[in-house]
Amino acid sequence: MIMSKLKDVLELIEKGFPVDEIDLGAPPVMLTLVAAKAKRTKLVYPLELYIEHHLSHNIKLRRMSRSPERWGIIQFNSNSLSKTTQEFEYSRLPSQRDEDFFTECRWTDPKEAVDFYFDWKRKTALRFIEQHKITDVTIDQVMTHYWEL
User: Fold this and answer.
1) What's the Cα-to-Cα distance from 39 to each of 31, 33, 116, 140, rounded to whole Å?
2) What is the mean pLDDT of each run of 10 residues along the chain (149 residues)?
3) Domain that includes residue 35, residue range
4) Predicted structure pTM score
5) What's the rounded Cα separation, in Å, for the pair 12 and 37?
6) Is the dihedral of CA 21, 22, 24, 30 positive or negative?
7) Which of 8, 63, 104, 147 has the fewest CB atoms lying closer than 10 Å?
8) Cβ-based neighbours of 90, under 8 Å, separated by 6 or more
C-alpha cells in the first residue's frame, strides 16, 4: 500500500533522480494518540499542525551515504528498523557495521523498504490500539498519515 505522492517519489528514484531521503511520517503510536486527542478535544489548531510539531520524531527512508545502493528506515538519525525484531535499534558506527547488520536493517529496493514500513506501521498501530483499549480511533485514521494530510 503506497500512497500516490510517495509512489511518485519512488518512481523518480527508479528513473535515477538524486533523492536521498523521504519523510514517511510520524510513528504510528504518535499518530494514534494525536488522532484520539483530536476526537476527544477541540483542537486549538488543525491536526496537521500537531503532526508538523512532531516532525523531529518522523521516520525517514534514507539512502545510506556510505552505501548508496542501500536504504534504511531511520528514526532520530541513529535508529534503524530491524526486519526481524521489527523494532528500532541503535545503529552502530559505520565502521562497526557488518554484513549481518546490512542484511537486518537495510534494503536494496526502496519500494520493498516502504512496503515493509507500512506493514510494520499497521501492525504496530493495531497492537497499540488493542493494548490501550482505544475505541475512538480506527486503524484507517492512523494509516492516513503525513502524506495525505
Assistant:
1) 12, 10, 29, 14
2) 69 82 73 58 48 63 86 89 92 82 93 92 83 74 52
3) 4-148
4) 0.74
5) 36
6) positive
7) 8
8) 78, 79
